[in-house]
Amino acid sequence: MRRVSILYALCALVSGVLVAADPPCPPPIVTPGARILYLGPASAGYSDELPVRARLVDENAAPMAARTLAFTFGGETKTATTGADGIANTTFTVSATPGSVPLLISFGTTQTTATIVVDRDNTNLSYTGSIFLATGNVNLSARLTHGGADHPPLPVANRPIDFTLGTHVATGVTDANGVATVNMVIADAEVGGGVVVVRFAGDAFYRESQDSRATFAFQGSAFVIWGGNATKPTIGQTVNFWGDQWVTQVTGGEWDSNASFKGWSLVNTTSDLCQADARISAAPTLTPGCWDSKTGNSDPPAQLPRYISAIVSTAIKKSNDVVYGNIAGHVVIEVQSPYDNNPGHPGLGKIVAVINDGAGIFKRPNVTSTLAQPATLAPGQSFVVQLALQNGGTAAATALNIQAAFDGAMPATATADLASLAPAETKSFTFTEQLGAIRARTAVSSPRRQRRATRMFRAHFSRRC
Length: 465
What we know:
This protein is mainly beta and 465 residues long. It has 4 domains: 35-119, Immunoglobulins (Immunoglobulin-like); 121-217, Immunoglobulins (Immunoglobulin-like, Sandwich); 224-357, no CATH class; 363-465, Sandwich (Immunoglobulin-like), CATH 2.60.40. The chain has 1 helix and 37 strands. It has one helix spanning 2-19, and strands at 35-40, 43-45, 49-57, 68-73, 76-81, 87-93, 99-107, 110-119, 123-127, 132-134, 136-146, 154-155, 160-165, 168-173, 179-186, 192-200, 209-218, 224-226, 238-242, 254-256, 266-267, 291-294, 307-313, 315-319, 322-325, 329-335, 347-357, 367-372, 382-391, 397-405, 409-410, 413-421, 426-435, 443-444, 448-450, 454-456, 460-461. Strands 2-8-7-4-5 form a 5-stranded mixed β-sheet, with no helix packed on it. Strands 10-17-16-13-14 form a 5-stranded mixed β-sheet, with no helix packed on it. The protein is elongated, with a radius of gyration of 38 Å.
């Protein structure tokens, strides 16, 4: 009986060993509590680069190195590894719609969210068409770009651009190169000075901008004046563009014709200039194809408006009964009254503008500029922008108007006028500005031509962190 009890007890003990529960596992190793500190920035412009930085620290505020942080902004995620200081950084190109956009930064289950205020990007609209407009169908063009200080100027496509010229209004849409083109019809009664204004009204992504240029409308003509004398024609000079006495203006140069040419021609080329440097005595030799005229009476218009264009020739030759010449340039002539298409009545006029000059006939100003400010600026700091104009041309520049726009500084615009700038002369201007309280920038000049001797300058400021 006792033997049975001992055996039972032994079996019970073995059974207990077999069914005993496993010992509990050791507790998991838990990473010390981590925190993410966003270091900025808090704002950015649409399409600009956004350099973001964050620091990862443990529960004792000690930096955590060699850890991977994930940055998510505008639907895009990038990763970066923390350095010895616990800081990781990466850069986004902002494509999010302007407004308040969340930036999510995460490390495992630790996350933080910052709000980035995305602003519309600045734009620059420039009129790119000619300022000299022949009556009839006229094409006007303008180019819209964005950036320029924070990144190189880039074209803005599919945006409406409004064109205004006198009473004419038209709208064009920018193409892939940012260029918008419109067509207007200018009547002969509209010859003379005018102003073309181009404007982009802005939208949810880009700020508004506009440009304006002085223009001059004239009736295109095939009259010819002589520019081959040793003494070259000048603006303000009275010239003979029609009549029996046309040849009396020729005192030298590449001339091989006779008195039968009266100044009216038939233009055979579609190019603005044609054999501009041609000669009849040496190479490059003048050949037919630019314009020609039959000897004897010709048939110019019976009436002319106040302003017309005229061809400037420096080489004219006669072959049998045909006179032909080159097209070295074009000028605008103010017709003196009375005009008559009878060759016995000379057609006289005053040169008021040079449209183009392929042979260096006319002395002209060449105004260049330099614009400078301190390389670095603090928010709210006052500073001086220095502008210098230099005339490297051979004629005085007159009626110069300087217009400056300062992005991020006050006052936002400044103007200055200069009556004249002689050849080799330099004039300086200063503008006192105060930077806004958000960011400091660097100035870059962008000269743009207005009329024959007018310049417009625009100051852009690039961000300094």
